[in-house]
């Protein structure tokens, strides 16, 4: 039932907060987001609909189960102090929620923020229907922090839109050079055949600078609003597609844990030390063809396989002996878990998507 979420990401002082102020007409109101040339937004700011202008503390947002932000409590009190909600009685916010994020500062480490910045970003990325990555013509250098961010966006390419903001601060020839340089910087980070849509304009209420491409900038703004409207219209399809994507991840995870467990059982003898046997397997899964066997026996893409290192941590918390083989989790009445998830992925969720496409109410 939650509204589609639009996430604003990018380096500091590229105009993310100004863009939100502009889209919602918050300029010169008591609730405009603070902007400036130096890094200003240090909080994750959620802008949502409400009957009157109101600010909500992060601790209150996380405690309110109706707002769907309660899972953010897991990032700790330090983070909740950096989370803020703003309710605005605006027509657009009846249909969408905006999230403004702290700008990426290349030389700042996660530890300095006092909370796991990348993990929090990932939480919002996983739930976003549209992700605006905003750039300023003077800040096109891609450092480690930005590289890390694009790694986190892997698999969400269809939801990414690149914004080249403050475009009227450049002459035409210079703007073309910057546009090319932006693509050159991002090409190694967005590894897809079709590049994301790039919007070139100046998203703020001031008039465009004279002798710049006013018509182009205005058309780009209108295109962006049409794009945003399309995402709002398609929110049900996006949610079902997200659920299916999540189901595929769960299926892969189940198959991998099953494979680790089967390998462990095969290698164990009466005289074996279980801990040493499993440490061998988890340290070098390729020697036991754990991941390759999943690719050979299923239609899983190698690009969808999770990181091998993640399973060291996973089994550190969840001992291998606490799992049952998938084949042992089938019953005459209930069927098999894996068959149910396969059916959801291949038939039920696509059918649900199809019914929406035909205009039926799911």
UniProtKB/TrEMBL annotation:
It comes from the Eukaryota. Coiled coil: none annotated. SUPFAM superfamilies: P-loop containing nucleoside triphosphate hydrolases. The keyword Glycoprotein applies. It is a peripheral membrane protein. One of its GO terms (molecular function) is GTP binding. Transmembrane segments: none annotated. Keywords: Glycoprotein, Membrane, Sarcoplasmic reticulum, Signal. One of its GO terms (cellular component) is sarcoplasmic reticulum lumen. Residues 1-241 form the Dynamin-type G domain. InterPro entries: Dynamin_N, G_DYNAMIN_dom, P-loop_NTPase, TRAFAC_Dynamin-like_GTPase. It is found in: Sarcoplasmic reticulum lumen; Sarcoplasmic reticulum membrane. Its main location: other. This is Sarcalumenin. The lineage of its organism: Eukaryota, Metazoa, Chordata, Craniata, Vertebrata.
């Amino acid at each position: 039932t939650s509204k589609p979420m639009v996430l604003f990401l990018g380096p500091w002082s590229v105009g993310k907060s100004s863009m939100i102020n502009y889209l919602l007409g918050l300029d010169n109101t008591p609730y405009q987001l603070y902007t400036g040339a130096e890094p200003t937004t240090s909080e994750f700011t959620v802008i949502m609909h409400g009957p009157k202008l109101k600010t909500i503390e992060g601790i209150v947002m996380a405690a309110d189960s109706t707002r769907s932000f309660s899972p953010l409590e897991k990032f700790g009190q330090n983070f909740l102090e950096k989370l803020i909600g703003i309710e605005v009685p605006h027509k657009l916010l009846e249909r969408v929620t905006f999230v403004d994020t702290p700008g990426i500062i290349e030389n700042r480490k996660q530890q300095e923020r006092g909370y796991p910045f990348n993990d929090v970003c990932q939480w919002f990325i996983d739930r976003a229907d549209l992700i605006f990555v905003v750039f300023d013509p003077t800040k096109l250098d891609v450092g480690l922090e930005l590289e890390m961010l694009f790694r986190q966006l892997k698999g969400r390419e269809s939801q990414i839109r690149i914004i080249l903001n403050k475009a009227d601060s450049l002459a035409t020839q210079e703007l073309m050079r910057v546009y090319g340089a932006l693509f050159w910087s991002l090409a190694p980070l967005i590894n897809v055949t079709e590049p994301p849509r790039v919007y070139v304009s100046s998203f703020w209420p001031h008039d465009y600078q004279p002798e710049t491409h006013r018509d182009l900038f205005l058309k780009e703004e209108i295109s962006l609003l049409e794009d945003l409207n399309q995402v709002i219209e398609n929110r049900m399809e996006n949610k079902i597609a997200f659920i299916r994507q999540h189901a595929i991840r769960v299926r892969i995870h189940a198959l991998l844990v099953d494979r680790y467990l089967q390998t462990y059982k095969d290698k164990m003898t009466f005289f074996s030390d279980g801990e040493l046997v499993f440490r061998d397997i988890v340290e070098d899964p390729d020697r036991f063809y754990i991941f390759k066997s999943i690719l050979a026996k299923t239609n899983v893409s190698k690009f969808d396989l999770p990181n091998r290192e993640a399973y060291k941590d996973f089994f550190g918390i969840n001992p291998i002996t606490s799992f049952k083989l998938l084949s042992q989790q089938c019953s005459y009445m209930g069927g098999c878990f894996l068959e149910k998830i396969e059916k959801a992925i291949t038939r039920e969720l696509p059918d649900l998507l199809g019914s929406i496409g035909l205009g039926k109410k799911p």
